[in-house]
Amino acid sequence: MIVAVVDVGSNSVRLLVADVQEAIVRQRHRERVYLRLGDDAHRLGRIGAEKLAQARDVIASFARIARDAGAVRLETIVTAPGRQSENAAELVRTLSSATRAAVVVLSAEDEGRLAWEGAVARLPDPPHVVAAVDLGGGSCEIAVGTPTLGPAWVRSFEAGALRVTRAFLDDGASGSHARDEARVAIAKLLSTATPPLPDVTLAVGGTARAVAKILGPTFGTKSLVELSRRLGASSPRSIARSFGLTEERAETLLGGTLVLAEVSNLVGTDLELGRGGLREGAALALARAEAAAA
Description:
By secondary structure, the chain is of the alpha/beta class. The chain has two domains: 2-108 and 277-293, Nucleotidyltransferase, domain 5 (2-Layer Sandwich), CATH 3.30.420; 123-273, 2-Layer Sandwich (Nucleotidyltransferase, domain 5). Helix content is 51%, strand content 23%. The strands form two sheets. It has a six-stranded mixed beta sheet, with helices on both faces. The protein is globular and about 55 Å long. It starts with a strand and ends with a helix.
């Protein structure tokens, strides 16, 4: 079954068209556009008219691509922008009109569960207890569970890579004082949670993929803190050029790296790059719903 998921996040809007067979998600097509809806949510508390218009045009284009690729079902999922914006209902109406398909604002718990499912589904031999960390632009979800029962513990924190960048690291503020201030704030947010200790922790999302390009597929608190020092000494343009990243990703990489360092410390394990994530989990759920309705 071919399904399509449009993922509207704080930093970017992404499309996944996938062929789903049982618990296997095979990618057919991907697209990504950086819209930074989270900038408006952070500064204004709402998505402005210009960003709404940009989102409408991008989403309409993604819907056409998905249908041309043979998707039998299309769904748009909205993550942090739908929870952190005063005019989330207006955003949903705009997206629904553009796609002529369902638009769902995910709760933080649902986002964490779907990301966990998408990550664990790609593990060939999952251990008994698995954690998944979904770090986006506006929030960070941590889910812990077992392959047989699913995620039993899910928490969300407003510590996304873009959000941390705008709060602590904007306007060239990437020196040791700014980094320390950000780390203290992130650690304070995460200190409210006591997750079950996992055997393996999978990190998913754009920041995790960018970090893996630099450090390799496994990284822990120590290597992430050291990377944050390196990133703090460079401009986003230099980071993008050195590591083959987009400048948009490079701009928020320091903030995201600081979050991942504190998450690794919290769960007590190194982080491993997950091969699946939120969109794969949503594709699995969408295929199940379509099969049930058939």
